[in-house]
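Support reply, case 0932

Customer input (verbatim):
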Amino acid sequence: MPPAVKLRKGKRQRFYARNSLNTTLPWWVKRSMPFPAGHTANSLDRGRIHPAFTSFADEVCATVARLFAYVGVLALFGILGVHAWDKLQADLAAEPTPQASWSIADRSYPAFALSPLNQTDKADKSDAYVIFRHPGGARKDVLRWSSIGDRAAAELEIYRPGSEYPSTTAARADLATRMISPGVDLEAAGVIESKFGSVALLRQAGAKEGVGSCLGFLKRIDDPALQISGWSCRGFSLASRRADIACMLNRLTPLSSGNEPKLAELFAQAELKRTNCAPAQGVTGGVAAGAVDWIVATENPQLRGAL
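Our regenerated output:
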Protein backbone atom coordinates (compact mmCIF):
# COMPACT_ATOMS: atom_id res chain seq x y z
CA MET A 1 0.00 0.00 0.00
CA PRO A 2 1.20 3.54 -0.80
CA PRO A 3 2.23 5.51 2.16
CA ALA A 4 -0.33 7.72 3.67
CA VAL A 5 -0.07 11.34 2.65
CA LYS A 6 0.39 13.65 5.53
CA LEU A 7 -2.01 16.47 5.82
CA ARG A 8 -0.48 19.92 5.99
CA LYS A 9 -1.73 22.16 8.65
CA GLY A 10 -3.57 25.28 7.61
CA LYS A 11 -4.47 23.93 4.23
CA ARG A 12 -7.74 22.55 3.09
CA GLN A 13 -7.85 19.14 1.71
CA ARG A 14 -8.92 18.77 -1.86
CA PHE A 15 -10.92 15.90 -3.03
CA TYR A 16 -11.35 14.82 -6.60
CA ALA A 17 -13.79 12.48 -8.10
CA ARG A 18 -12.32 9.22 -9.11
CA ASN A 19 -13.61 9.63 -12.66
CA SER A 20 -11.89 13.07 -13.38
CA LEU A 21 -8.33 14.13 -14.06
CA ASN A 22 -6.29 15.99 -11.54
CA THR A 23 -5.43 19.39 -13.16
CA THR A 24 -3.56 20.81 -10.21
CA LEU A 25 0.18 20.31 -10.30
CA PRO A 26 1.89 19.17 -7.16
CA TRP A 27 3.65 21.83 -5.18
CA TRP A 28 7.08 20.47 -5.85
CA VAL A 29 6.48 20.60 -9.64
CA LYS A 30 5.45 24.24 -9.45
CA ARG A 31 8.63 25.19 -7.66
CA SER A 32 10.81 23.48 -10.25
CA MET A 33 9.30 25.28 -13.32
CA PRO A 34 11.17 28.44 -14.43
CA PHE A 35 9.07 31.56 -14.80
CA PRO A 36 10.12 35.00 -16.03
CA ALA A 37 11.08 37.54 -13.48
CA GLY A 38 8.12 39.35 -12.01
CA HIS A 39 5.74 36.45 -12.68
CA THR A 40 4.48 33.73 -10.46
CA ALA A 41 3.37 30.28 -11.36
CA ASN A 42 -0.25 31.03 -10.62
CA SER A 43 -0.55 34.50 -12.23
CA LEU A 44 0.99 35.41 -15.74
CA ASP A 45 0.60 38.85 -17.32
CA ARG A 46 -1.07 37.78 -20.56
CA GLY A 47 -1.41 41.40 -21.84
CA ARG A 48 2.37 41.91 -22.10
CA ILE A 49 4.36 41.08 -25.36
CA HIS A 50 7.15 38.64 -24.96
CA PRO A 51 10.60 40.34 -24.95
CA ALA A 52 11.75 38.19 -27.89
CA PHE A 53 8.98 39.56 -30.11
CA THR A 54 9.67 43.11 -28.95
CA SER A 55 13.37 42.79 -29.79
CA PHE A 56 12.57 41.43 -33.30
CA ALA A 57 10.22 44.34 -34.07
CA ASP A 58 12.84 46.83 -32.95
CA GLU A 59 15.43 45.21 -35.19
CA VAL A 60 13.07 45.35 -38.19
CA CYS A 61 12.34 49.04 -37.63
CA ALA A 62 16.03 49.82 -37.24
CA THR A 63 16.88 47.93 -40.44
CA VAL A 64 14.19 49.75 -42.42
CA ALA A 65 15.46 53.09 -41.08
CA ARG A 66 19.02 52.24 -42.12
CA LEU A 67 17.84 51.25 -45.59
CA PHE A 68 16.04 54.57 -45.99
CA ALA A 69 19.18 56.40 -44.86
CA TYR A 70 21.38 54.48 -47.32
CA VAL A 71 18.96 55.09 -50.20
CA GLY A 72 18.82 58.79 -49.31
CA VAL A 73 22.61 59.08 -49.31
CA LEU A 74 22.85 57.25 -52.64
CA ALA A 75 20.19 59.52 -54.13
CA LEU A 76 22.11 62.58 -52.89
CA PHE A 77 25.33 61.31 -54.46
CA GLY A 78 23.44 60.63 -57.70
CA ILE A 79 22.03 64.18 -57.80
CA LEU A 80 25.46 65.66 -57.13
CA GLY A 81 27.00 63.47 -59.85
CA VAL A 82 24.39 64.48 -62.44
CA HIS A 83 24.88 68.14 -61.55
CA ALA A 84 28.66 67.84 -61.86
CA TRP A 85 28.32 66.05 -65.22
CA ASP A 86 25.98 68.73 -66.60
CA LYS A 87 28.37 71.45 -65.46
CA LEU A 88 31.29 69.67 -67.10
CA GLN A 89 29.39 69.34 -70.37
CA ALA A 90 28.46 73.03 -70.26
CA ASP A 91 32.10 74.00 -69.63
CA LEU A 92 33.29 71.84 -72.51
CA ALA A 93 30.67 73.34 -74.80
CA ALA A 94 31.69 76.85 -73.79
CA GLU A 95 35.38 76.23 -74.45
CA PRO A 96 36.42 76.60 -78.09
CA THR A 97 37.19 73.35 -79.74
CA PRO A 98 40.82 73.20 -80.78
CA GLN A 99 41.02 73.25 -84.56
CA ALA A 100 42.99 70.66 -86.40
CA SER A 101 46.12 72.11 -87.94
CA TRP A 102 46.96 72.32 -91.61
CA SER A 103 49.87 70.35 -92.94
CA ILE A 104 51.99 70.70 -96.05
CA ALA A 105 51.20 68.10 -98.70
CA ASP A 106 54.57 67.48 -100.32
CA ARG A 107 53.34 64.65 -102.51
CA SER A 108 50.39 66.52 -104.01
CA TYR A 109 50.61 68.01 -107.47
CA PRO A 110 49.80 71.65 -108.33
CA ALA A 111 46.22 72.12 -109.49
CA PHE A 112 46.28 75.79 -110.64
CA ALA A 113 48.49 78.20 -112.52
CA LEU A 114 48.44 81.58 -114.21
CA SER A 115 48.19 81.38 -117.94
CA PRO A 116 50.98 83.31 -119.74
CA LEU A 117 50.22 86.52 -121.55
CA ASN A 118 51.77 85.03 -124.68
CA GLN A 119 53.71 81.98 -125.71
CA THR A 120 57.07 83.46 -124.70
CA ASP A 121 55.96 85.05 -121.40
CA LYS A 122 57.41 83.40 -118.31
CA ALA A 123 58.04 86.49 -116.23
CA ASP A 124 54.98 86.02 -113.98
CA LYS A 125 55.60 82.42 -112.99
CA SER A 126 55.16 82.01 -109.24
CA ASP A 127 58.31 81.76 -107.17
CA ALA A 128 56.71 79.29 -104.77
CA TYR A 129 53.79 76.86 -104.92
CA VAL A 130 52.72 75.34 -101.59
CA ILE A 131 49.85 72.90 -101.03
CA PHE A 132 48.18 72.53 -97.64
CA ARG A 133 45.88 69.72 -96.54
CA HIS A 134 43.35 69.70 -93.71
CA PRO A 135 42.02 66.59 -91.86
CA GLY A 136 38.50 67.79 -92.70
CA GLY A 137 39.17 67.22 -96.41
CA ALA A 138 40.09 70.78 -97.42
CA ARG A 139 42.94 71.85 -99.65
CA LYS A 140 44.75 75.14 -100.20
CA ASP A 141 46.89 75.91 -103.23
CA VAL A 142 49.07 78.94 -102.53
CA LEU A 143 51.06 80.76 -105.21
CA ARG A 144 53.58 83.39 -104.08
CA TRP A 145 55.68 85.97 -105.91
CA SER A 146 58.70 87.72 -104.46
CA SER A 147 60.29 91.04 -105.24
CA ILE A 148 63.88 92.17 -104.89
CA GLY A 149 65.39 90.93 -101.64
CA ASP A 150 63.05 87.92 -101.45
CA ARG A 151 60.34 90.06 -99.94
CA ALA A 152 56.83 88.77 -100.62
CA ALA A 153 55.18 90.91 -103.28
CA ALA A 154 51.95 89.04 -104.06
CA GLU A 155 50.02 85.94 -103.11
CA LEU A 156 47.12 83.99 -104.56
CA GLU A 157 45.33 81.28 -102.55
CA ILE A 158 42.70 78.89 -103.92
CA TYR A 159 40.87 77.30 -101.01
CA ARG A 160 38.63 74.29 -101.59
CA PRO A 161 36.94 73.73 -98.20
CA GLY A 162 35.88 70.53 -96.54
CA SER A 163 33.82 70.16 -93.39
CA GLU A 164 35.66 73.06 -91.70
CA TYR A 165 34.60 75.90 -94.05
CA PRO A 166 35.04 79.09 -91.97
CA SER A 167 32.83 82.17 -91.98
CA THR A 168 33.53 85.32 -93.99
CA THR A 169 34.72 87.09 -90.84
CA ALA A 170 37.24 84.33 -90.16
CA ALA A 171 38.36 84.45 -93.80
CA ARG A 172 39.03 88.19 -93.54
CA ALA A 173 40.99 87.69 -90.31
CA ASP A 174 43.08 84.99 -91.99
CA LEU A 175 43.72 87.28 -94.96
CA ALA A 176 44.88 90.05 -92.63
CA THR A 177 47.29 87.62 -90.96
CA ARG A 178 48.77 86.53 -94.28
CA MET A 179 48.78 89.99 -95.78
CA ILE A 180 50.07 92.14 -92.92
CA SER A 181 50.13 90.79 -89.38
CA PRO A 182 47.75 89.24 -86.82
CA GLY A 183 45.30 91.61 -85.17
CA VAL A 184 45.34 94.19 -87.99
CA ASP A 185 41.92 95.39 -89.14
CA LEU A 186 41.03 95.55 -92.80
CA GLU A 187 38.69 98.01 -94.41
CA ALA A 188 36.86 97.93 -97.72
CA ALA A 189 38.80 99.29 -100.69
CA GLY A 190 36.28 98.99 -103.47
CA VAL A 191 35.31 96.30 -105.95
CA ILE A 192 36.80 95.06 -109.21
CA GLU A 193 35.30 92.93 -111.96
CA SER A 194 36.90 89.66 -113.00
CA LYS A 195 35.89 86.54 -114.84
CA PHE A 196 34.58 85.21 -111.50
CA GLY A 197 32.35 88.25 -111.06
CA SER A 198 32.70 91.09 -108.59
CA VAL A 199 35.62 90.76 -106.17
CA ALA A 200 35.85 92.75 -102.92
CA LEU A 201 39.08 94.58 -102.22
CA LEU A 202 40.50 95.15 -98.74
CA ARG A 203 43.36 97.15 -97.32
CA GLN A 204 44.83 97.94 -93.94
CA ALA A 205 42.67 100.36 -92.00
CA GLY A 206 44.19 103.84 -92.08
CA ALA A 207 47.03 102.86 -94.42
CA LYS A 208 48.50 105.60 -96.53
CA GLU A 209 48.67 105.26 -100.28
CA GLY A 210 52.09 104.89 -101.82
CA VAL A 211 54.92 102.50 -102.48
CA GLY A 212 54.94 99.56 -100.09
CA SER A 213 51.23 99.52 -99.32
CA CYS A 214 49.30 96.35 -100.12
CA LEU A 215 45.84 95.57 -101.41
CA GLY A 216 43.98 92.38 -100.60
CA PHE A 217 41.03 90.64 -102.24
CA LEU A 218 38.50 87.99 -101.27
CA LYS A 219 36.01 86.09 -103.42
CA ARG A 220 33.75 83.30 -102.14
CA ILE A 221 31.74 81.05 -104.45
CA ASP A 222 28.93 78.89 -103.10
CA ASP A 223 28.57 76.20 -105.78
CA PRO A 224 31.03 74.64 -105.90
CA ALA A 225 32.39 75.80 -102.56
CA LEU A 226 35.48 77.79 -103.42
CA GLN A 227 37.34 80.73 -101.95
CA ILE A 228 39.89 82.78 -103.87
CA SER A 229 41.90 85.30 -101.87
CA GLY A 230 45.26 86.97 -101.80
CA TRP A 231 47.00 90.29 -101.98
CA SER A 232 49.37 92.37 -104.04
CA CYS A 233 51.97 94.93 -103.05
CA ARG A 234 53.20 95.43 -106.61
CA GLY A 235 52.83 98.73 -108.37
CA PHE A 236 53.25 102.36 -107.42
CA SER A 237 49.63 103.23 -106.78
CA LEU A 238 46.29 101.82 -105.74
CA ALA A 239 45.14 101.76 -109.35
CA SER A 240 48.11 99.66 -110.47
CA ARG A 241 47.56 97.17 -107.65
CA ARG A 242 43.86 96.92 -108.51
CA ALA A 243 44.82 96.18 -112.11
CA ASP A 244 47.39 93.61 -111.00
CA ILE A 245 44.81 91.73 -108.95
CA ALA A 246 42.26 91.79 -111.78
CA CYS A 247 44.84 90.41 -114.19
CA MET A 248 45.89 87.76 -111.70
CA LEU A 249 42.32 86.50 -111.35
CA ASN A 250 41.61 86.55 -115.07
CA ARG A 251 44.73 84.49 -115.80
CA LEU A 252 43.98 81.89 -113.12
CA THR A 253 43.32 78.50 -114.71
CA PRO A 254 43.06 74.91 -113.41
CA LEU A 255 45.68 72.38 -114.43
CA SER A 256 43.50 69.43 -113.53
CA SER A 257 40.00 69.31 -112.07
CA GLY A 258 40.33 65.64 -111.16
CA ASN A 259 37.05 64.26 -109.87
CA GLU A 260 35.45 67.69 -109.51
CA PRO A 261 33.22 68.29 -112.53
CA LYS A 262 31.58 71.33 -110.90
CA LEU A 263 34.98 73.00 -110.53
CA ALA A 264 35.77 72.35 -114.18
CA GLU A 265 32.39 73.77 -115.20
CA LEU A 266 32.97 76.88 -113.07
CA PHE A 267 36.25 77.69 -114.79
CA ALA A 268 34.80 76.88 -118.21
CA GLN A 269 31.99 79.37 -117.67
CA ALA A 270 34.44 81.92 -116.24
CA GLU A 271 36.66 81.72 -119.34
CA LEU A 272 33.81 83.09 -121.39
CA LYS A 273 34.01 86.32 -119.33
CA ARG A 274 37.78 86.61 -119.37
CA THR A 275 39.46 89.84 -120.49
CA ASN A 276 42.99 90.28 -121.75
CA CYS A 277 45.83 91.88 -119.85
CA ALA A 278 47.78 94.80 -121.26
CA PRO A 279 51.22 95.99 -120.12
CA ALA A 280 51.32 98.61 -117.39
CA GLN A 281 54.14 100.43 -115.71
CA GLY A 282 55.21 99.06 -112.36
CA VAL A 283 53.34 95.73 -112.63
CA THR A 284 54.92 92.49 -113.79
CA GLY A 285 52.73 90.59 -116.19
CA GLY A 286 50.48 93.43 -117.24
CA VAL A 287 47.02 94.59 -116.23
CA ALA A 288 43.55 93.80 -117.35
CA ALA A 289 42.17 96.09 -119.98
CA GLY A 290 39.51 98.24 -118.46
CA ALA A 291 40.33 97.14 -114.92
CA VAL A 292 41.37 100.63 -113.91
CA ASP A 293 38.25 102.67 -114.35
CA TRP A 294 36.86 105.64 -112.51
CA ILE A 295 33.49 103.91 -112.18
CA VAL A 296 34.92 101.34 -109.73
CA ALA A 297 37.56 103.61 -108.14
CA THR A 298 37.48 103.85 -104.34
CA GLU A 299 38.66 107.44 -104.12
CA ASN A 300 36.95 110.49 -105.64
CA PRO A 301 36.68 109.68 -109.37
CA GLN A 302 38.22 112.07 -111.84
CA LEU A 303 36.21 112.61 -114.98
CA ARG A 304 38.22 112.24 -118.17
CA GLY A 305 38.11 114.57 -121.13
CA ALA A 306 36.98 118.14 -121.60
CA LEU A 307 33.50 119.12 -120.59
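We compared this against your earlier run and they match. Two observations from our side: Residues 51-94 form the longest helix (44 residues). The chain has five helices and twelve strands. Please reopen the case if you see a mismatch on your end.
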